[in-house]
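Regression test case RT-17, inverse folding.

Input:
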C-alpha cells in the first residue's frame, strides 16, 4: 500500500521554533496548495540526514553543518530553504555549579555533552586552537538530553542553543532559587572566529531524488509554510494559540519563552543565505568534514516570492516582544515542566 503524503522529519522533537510547519497544517495551507504532509519527530536527531538521504523520508529539517556533512558522507540531500537564521549556539553551563568561566581553558577536566559526532569534532578543533587537546576534557554523547544531563549533574556543560537549552536551564535555575543569569554560554562562533552562528541555522532539506522528481510539490510545501509564517509574524499570539491546539504540551511558560527567544531568528523569506553557506563551507573544510572539491547542496529555486537582501553581517537581530509569554503567564501557574524526566 502506498500513500501520496509527503513525509517531513523534524530535526528534533517538536519545538516552538517548528511552529510555521504545524501552523501550515492547522490552517490547511498544505491542502490549499494541493499537497498532504505527515510531520514526523525523530528519536535520535543524528539519524535525520541518513533517513532523508536514503529516501525513507522526503523532506525535513536539519542544521546547516549537518546538511553539508550529510552530503559529504554520500547522502543525496539538499537544502531548499532556511527556517531559523543563525541561532546562537555554544557550550552552555551553570556558573554556580560547573567551575566554568568565560575562559575556554576552564573546560579543562570537565565533562562536556554533545548531541552528535559533529559537536565533538567542533569541540576537539577548539581545544587545539586554545592550546589544549581532546584528551583535556571528557566528551559525553547525550543526544537530545543536554538540559537534563546538566540538571542531573551527568555533565558540567553541553552544546546547546540560546533559544532552547538556555531557556530551559534558566527556568529550572529560577525554580531552584538561583537567578536566570546563572546560566551562561561560550558561543562557538566567537570561540572559532567564524563571524556568524550560521553553522547551526536550521534548514529545510530534502532527498534530492524526491526534489528533482517533484518540483511543484516542493514549491507548494515552501509556499504553504511561507503563508503560515506571515500569519505568525502578523499575530504571534494567535499563531501560538493555534499551535497549542495541535500540541497541548506547548502551553507551558518554558515553551512560550522558547518561542519568544526563537522569534528573532525566524527567516523572513526562507532563503539560503549565500554568505552564510560560504562561511560554513569553509568552516567544514577547516574541520576536515569536507574536501576542497565540495559543491554546495542548496537552492532557492523553490521559493516563489521576492527574496530580501542579505542582512548586514555581524548585526544581531533585535529581540521582539511577541506577547506570547505575557499571554501565557496570565493563564498558567505552577512550576516549570519536569525537564529532567518528562521533557528531556
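Golden output:
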Amino acid at each position: 500500500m502506498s500513500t501520496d503524503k509527503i513525509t517531513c522529519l523534524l530535526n528534533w522533537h517538536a519545538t516552538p521554533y517548528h511552529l510555521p510547519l504545524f501552523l501550515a497544517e492547522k490552517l490547511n495551507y498544505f491542502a490549499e496548495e494541493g499537497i498532504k504532509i505527515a510531520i514526523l519527530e525523530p528519536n535520535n536527531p543524528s539519524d535525520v540526514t541518513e533517513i532523508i538521504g536514503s529516501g525513507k523520508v522526503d523532506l525535513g529539517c536539519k542544521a546547516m553543518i549537518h546538511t553539508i556533512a550529510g552530503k559529504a558522507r554520500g547522502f543525496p540531500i539538499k537544502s531548499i530553504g532556511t527556517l531559523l537564521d543563525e541561532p546562537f549556539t555554544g557550550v552552555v553551563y551553570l556558573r554556580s555549579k560547573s567551575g566554568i568561566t568565560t575562559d575556554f581553558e576552564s573546560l579543562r577536566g570537565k565533562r562536556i555533552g554533545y548531541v552528535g559526532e559533529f559537536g565533538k569534532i567542533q569541540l576537539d578543533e577548539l581545544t587545539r586552537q586554545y592550546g589544549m587537546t581532546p584528551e583535556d576534557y571528557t566528551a559525553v554523547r547525550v543526544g537530545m538530553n543536554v538540559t537534563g544531563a546538566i540538571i542531573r549533574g551527568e555533565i558540567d556543560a553541553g552544546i546547546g542553543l540560546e533559544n532552547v537549552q538556555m531557556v530551559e536551564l534558566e527556568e529550572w535555575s529560577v525554580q531552584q532559587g538561583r537567578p536566570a543569569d546563572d546560566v551562561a554560554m561560550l558561543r562557538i562562533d566567537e570561540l572559532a572566529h567564524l563571524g556568524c552562528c550560521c553553522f547551526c541555522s536550521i534548514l529545510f532539506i530534502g532527498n534530492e531524488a524526491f526534489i528533482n522528481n517533484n518540483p511543484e510539490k516542493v514549491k507548494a510545501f515552501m509556499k504553504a509554510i511561507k503563508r503560515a509564517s506571515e500569519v505568525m509574524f502578523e499575530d504571534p499570539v494567535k499563531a501560538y494559540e493555534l499551535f497549542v491546539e495541535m500540541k497541548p504540551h506547548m502551553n507551558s511558560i518554558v515553551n512560550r519563552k522558547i518561542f519568544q527567544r526563537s522569534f528573532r531568528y525566524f527567516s523572513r523569506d526562507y532563503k539560503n543565505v549565500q554568505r552564510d553557506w560560504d562561511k560554513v563551507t569553509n568552516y567544514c573544510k577547516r574541520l576536515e568534514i569536507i574536501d576542497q572539491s565540495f559543491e554546495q547542496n542548496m537552492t532557492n529555486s523553490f521559493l516563489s516570492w521576492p527574496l530580501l537582501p542579505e542582512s548586514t553581517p555581524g548585526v544581531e537581530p533585535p529581540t521582539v516582544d511577541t506577547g506570547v509569554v505575557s499571554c501565557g503567564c496570565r493563564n498558567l501557574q505552577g512550576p516549570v515542566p519536569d525537564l529532567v524526566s518528562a521533557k528531556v
